[in-house]
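Known limitations

Files may contain more than one protein. Parsers should not assume a single record per file. Below, a two-record file is shown to illustrate correct handling: read the sequence, read the token line, then continue until end of file.
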Amino acid sequence: MGVHLGKSKHINMLNFTLPGPATIAIAALVPTIIGFIWYNPKVFGTAWMNAAGVTPESAKGMNMPVVFGVSLLLSFLLAASLVPMVLHQFGFFSMMMDEGGKAALADHNSEIAKHAQFMMDTFGHSFHTFKHGALHGTILGIFTILPVIATGAMFERKGFKYIAINAGYWIVSLAIMGAIICHFMPYPKLG
């Protein structure tokens, strides 16, 4: 959905507010890659198995293709859900996605269209860095994922080590996922 604003500028809002499928797919691979490293027996794998009460014998009964396939699908959903959390411009445009906002943006002379053009000219490239995406991924990991894991672990009678290993994995994974999504986000197409 392209919206012409002003005399010679054009913002393709869908391309701007949504990263390409390749960016989401690459970010979705991060938990699997980090998991291979994080849960390796030479890193945290042995400590995690002890804290989780998993034995090599009990792990052998898992259908690994299904586990990895479902994990990858869930990672894709997680990567897609990170978009509005790491991109500030997404919030700006999401406020205008009702019918009235779409119509006002389509009217090149409307105050909303002029304001949107000003906002994109001034702030359209702001905070599109690897570092900024990593910050938001880390914040999400600490303030959302950690409480979820810790609450469940307490009711499952798991200890601090279990919580620290699993929450640490997700904090690192989300930081890298957020960094990828934010850094490789296409800039608005103006002109």
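...continuing to the second record:
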Amino acid sequence: MEAPESVFDLSAATAAGRVAQPVHARYAALVPAPFGVLGLRCRGDRLTGIDFLPAGLPLQTPTTELARLAAKQLADYFRDPTTVFDLPLEPDGTPYRQRVWQAVRGIGCGETRTYGELAATLDSAPRAVGQAVGDNPLPVVVPCHRVVGRHGLGGFAHARNGYSIEIKRWLLRHEGVLGH
């Protein structure tokens, strides 16, 4: 699987009219994953985001106790997919998105739900659920990879192919949902 090349977020910086910061400046840790590097973002004593970054990016030792704990739990998960995450989370999102992400956290390892099934439990529409799932700022910990389409994988991080879908496939294989 090939990761994106850029280690700068130029779109956000360009939109804000400022130069992009190097990746290391934005994260409390950069930790290895089987498919690349994960950038951990924290605010105070809460984990606020996990970003998929390219393989080969230099790792960064956790700068806070929370980042150290998150890095350990992620490493545990990559060894054993039944690992249960116990981290203080603070994802930014509307009340609706918060409800969707909370419902996604209830999907256990080795299980999946379709966007439609999740929508039915939330008295919502599958497309709205798909948008909220795609906006999940805490992938892996809030296991949005476990939400699939009625007739296939569906998307992942608003992508329907490429690097993101390969990550979703890896995660579902790791959990025994897809064959190797």
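Parsers that stop after the first record will miss the second one. For reference, the second record is described as follows. Residues 2-20 have pLDDT under 50 and may be disordered.
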